[in-house]
Amino acid sequence: YGTGAAIFSLAWHELLSRMTADGSFKPRRLIAVDPLGWNLSSHPRWTAGLDPDKAEEWFVESLEGWRSASGIERMDLVGHSIGGYLAASYAERHSNRVRILTLVSPAGVPKEPEDFRQKILQASWKIRLMLRLWGRGWTPHLGLQCLPKRIGYRIAVNCAGRWTQRSEDDTCEVGMDKDALADYIYFGWSEGAASSEMILGAILHPGAWAKRPLCDRLPKIRVPRIEMIYGDRDWMDARHGNAVAEQCQASTTTATATTPTETVRTPRIWVQLLTSAGHYGHLENVSGFVQALTQALGERDVGDEKARRSAELPPDFAKRFQGPDVPKWRSWEGYEFGR
């Protein structure tokens, strides 16, 4: 997504340390990619408009071109937020190139609630204006480009400071250079012509609801395994990931029982909940995130088809999205966006 591959640098450092230190993780080749139009990759002018199919193709085919040029036959693909949505889009079209698909706090999983458009009328005029602009193709990145550098850079500094607030549970001893991260964020968002940041309005309705939600698409993706990782304070709701995992597990169990000799094509989906983490778990709880990612990319016991694959959620989890302190118009996935 638009924050770029470098915000995972602490996680990659921790992961590589585990590869070399105690052998707890099988050594592998790791490539961190800034997708086309983001940060250090080239920024071609956006040509897909607000068409979700063309927008997905913009990313999917550029990633496929990179994979082919890099000589990679098959890979474990990890994507965060909208990057998770696009990783799923890639696996949907090029399933033979993906072994394990890992979606970290993926955007675009659920369908838009039927009453959302009515609920949003209860929001302030500022929020309604922002969502209206979103629907017409405006994005936070475009807004940043319109601001004087002094103000825009201050926003990047605030983002860098907020995203690097570490959990007390995090045991990673390496720190992030906040100044370098602020530079990376600001120049990645503000340099060049309007490019891939335009995808927000193309694939998401106002309010971060996908025009082509993944809940209908993930069960049909022909990859052996899909992993989903959410933070327990994530504004992406882990319950939606659980629902898809349980749906696929029920389909797999039924198919296995009725046609035991045939290959079951429904993917096996596992969901993990990362504690002490929000949407940027790879920055907020680095060691916990790496542990979850290690499990996601490791071997899974698929012998017992009835074993739980969905994440176990705290009893009060729903209150974080629909509690008495959450305004009614915000009781949707992404209510924190209004903040």
TrEMBL record:
**GO biological process terms held by the UniProt record:** lipid homeostasis; phosphatidic acid biosynthetic process
Q: Which family does it belong to?
A: Belongs to the peptidase S33 family. ABHD4/ABHD5 subfamily.
Domain (AB hydrolase-1) spans 28-119
Spell out the residue ranges making up region: Disordered.
300-326
**What name does UniProt use for this protein?**
AB hydrolase-1 domain-containing protein
Q: Where is the composition biased (Basic and acidic residues)?
A: 300-311
Question: Per UniProt, what is one GO molecular function of this protein?
Answer: carboxylic ester hydrolase activity
Instruction: Enumerate the Gene3D superfamilies for this protein.
Output: alpha/beta hydrolase
Q: Which residues form a coiled coil?
A: none
